[in-house]
Amino acid sequence: MQGLFITFEGIDGAGKSSHIATLAQALRDAGRSVTLTREPGGTPLAEKLRAMLLNDSMDALTETLLVFAARRDHLRSVIEPALARGEVVLCDRFTDATFAYQGAGRGFDLDVLSYMERLAQTGLASDPDLMRNPDLTLWFDVPPEVAAERLATARAPDRFEAESADFFARVARGYAERAAAAPGRFARLDGAQAREQVAAQMLAAVAARGWLPEGGR
Ligand code: TYD
User: Fold this and answer.
1) 8 C-alpha vs ligand 1 centroid, how far in Å?
2) How many domains is the chain partitioned into structurally?
3) Domain with 204 in it
4) What is the per-residue DSSP string for 132-183?
5) CB-ligand 1 contact for 106 (6 Å cutoff)
6) pTM value?
7) 216 within domain boundaries
């Protein structure tokens, strides 16, 4: 079977995390092997970088370099090998988050990000020129006010979750711009709906690509 790389994106509080397990189960029920992972993180080295990114103060360049370093290690050690085995890789966040958070949120140069994206995501698979990108990105789109309300009741905020409403408005616009630039790769889900409806939208988007039986589970 062909490997599949599916990423989950959205601003903090968009609610994506609770849906990843649902999709994993649906894919397993359909006979697929699934690797569940996340960014930043997914390897011992990248998880150490994650702890620094979420807790230690640093400038936008340092933050961006660490994010891509974590991604490179993750791609080499986990994502590429799983795809080569024909598995489905479900990854909680990937490079769209870098464009949204470091790019739109922090104002980091988008051309430099594109260069770093190419650097980190090529020279990995059997085809050295291939730039590894998700086959599908499930974008949980919620108004920043709704996400902020959800976050208010959550655990102690990390460095990103503690950011201002303006920051999240920019991040949300950053996601919208990435989606507009790659409409075939993105599926926009209305994350403001009730949880079951969001799950149904997600399963329908995956089924529409022929990767699950129609009607979801
Ligand atoms: P998140 O995925 O929301 O995990 P949790 O649900 O455990 O809080 O947290 C990861 C944070 O890292 C999130 O606030 C966004 C940020 N991030 C970036 O700023 N850039 C990136 O490239 C990635 C992958 C994440």
Assistant:
1) 11
2) 1
3) 4-208
4) P--SEEEEEE--HHHHHHHHHTSSS--TTTTS-HHHHHHHHHHHHHHHHH-T
5) no
6) 0.96
7) no
